[in-house]
Amino acid sequence: TEELINAHGEEAVLRLATARIGETFGSAVIALFPGQEGRLEVKASSGGATATSDKERGIAQWVYDTGQAAGLGTDSLPVGDALYIPILGAQGPVGVLAATPRDPGKKLLAEQRKLLDSFAHQMGMALELDRFQKSARTAEVEVEAERLRSSLLSSVSHDLRTPLAVVVGTASTLAQNWKLLEPDKVQEFIENIQSEAEHLSRLVQNLLEVTRLESGAVRVRKELYPLEEVLGSALERLSIPLKNREVKINMAANLPPVPMDGLLIGQVFVNLLENAIRHTPEGTPIDIWAGAEGKSVRVAVSDQGTGLRLDELERVFDKFYRSPSSRGAGLGLAICRAIITVHGGTICACNRPGGGAIFCFTLPMEINNGS
After folding, report:
1. How far apart are CA 13 and CA 6, in angstroms?
2. Would you write out the chain's pLDDT as a tens digit for each of its 371 residues?
3. Distance from C-alpha of 96 to C-alpha of 120, rounded to nearest angstrom
4. Are 78 and 27 within 8 A, CB to CB?
5. Which residues lie below 8 Å from residue 166, measured CB to CB, with a gap of 6+?
6. Which residues of 308-344 are buried (b: 16+ CB within 10 A; e: fewer)?
7. Quick one: which of 43, 104, 107, 40 has its CA closest to 73?
């Protein structure tokens, strides 16, 4: 029973059960189960057991159909060379166990027969449990897939529809009235179109990126990069959104180059900074700290916003999760977690004393291109 509890998967259960039964009862053992066409097929064996003859298969089929033992040492079809025991599940027989004594014609004692029945019953229970677990996992995957599908449709429909409406409406106004508009107003409309188009582009890019990361399509190639250079590139990409912000950088002196995929970690910085910009008042500063910690480097990006609710501290990294006040699609932080995970690091969120949120991630200092 203990061994069956620790066996995972139908194949492991059958291999373990047939081997243990064969050893205990000095027999060659075969486990037969219905195949695709409904006929019994050998799924596992031990003790040198081989495929049975047509006569023996007929006895096994009778046992499966009736749920009663037959063959050697029984009153039902005693001409069999083996003892056939039904393997019972919750709804009836799920298979048949055939035990052929190594000593031809040797029959089991009554106590041995009871023990064999018990073994077959335990085997059936273990198989049923494995199938229930598979069904539960399948149902869980289907529920999660449906949840993600609904979240995706809800998020994408909202986040695509809003900027598209702005782009279409502004472009339509320009097309019809551009001769009547002041140059400053034309410039404003053009900037609105550009801003909303960039938002759409980021949304589509994030959707593609999170799918590639979680499907394993992205293979991380680590090289030694100075962390300040990767951060500097990210700050340059966000120069316009950060133009009214003070970014305070506190990086440990003599911090060695860090093994990373520079483009991916640069995206982590961009996403964390955009998150801070989105959830804090205009003009408030953003702090970035980095330093060595054991065999890793730790980075923290903190802001001076309203912080996170306790129930958000873990959920904030889930795909499509976003606070009620957020305009984003809920993918930026999910991408950060996926990137840090494939690097072998960790990422977490907490509240900053005095107000605001802190997002910390670690990167191992050892290079492993197979990660």
Report:
1. 9
2. 888 888 888 888 999 999 999 999 989 999 999 987 788 988 888 877 666 788 888 999 999 999 999 998 888 988 888 899 999 887 889 999 999 988 876 788 889 999 999 999 999 888 888 888 888 887 877 776 666 566 555 555 656 677 788 888 888 888 888 788 888 888 888 888 888 887 777 777 766 766 666 666 567 788 999 999 999 999 998 888 898 899 999 999 889 999 998 988 998 999 999 889 988 888 899 999 999 988 999 999 999 988 888 878 778 888 766 665 555 556 778 888 888 988 999 999 999 988 899 999 999 987 654 44
3. 9
4. no
5. 192, 193, 196
6. beeebeeebbebbbbeeeeebbbbbbbbbbbbbbbbb
7. 107
Strand partners, 360: 300, 348
CA–CA dist 176, 103 (Å, integer): 98
264: Cβ contacts below 8 Å, ≥ 6 apart: 218, 220, 339, 342, 343
In DSSP notation, 305-336 reads SS---TTHHHHTTSTT---TT--S-S-HHHHH
Q: How far apart are CA 359 and CA 345, in angstroms?
A: 13
Tell me the CB-side half-sphere exposure of residue 17, using CA atoms within 13 A: 33
Decide: helix, strand or coil at residue 354.
coil
> Left (φ > 0), alpha (ψ -120 to 50) or beta: where does 283 sit?
left
The two structure tokens encoding residue 246: 């003070």
Cα 330 from Cα 343, distance rounded (Å): 22
Tokens of 293: 């910690």
Burial string for 107-125 (b: 16+ CB within 10 Å, else e) reads ebeeeebeebeebbebbbb
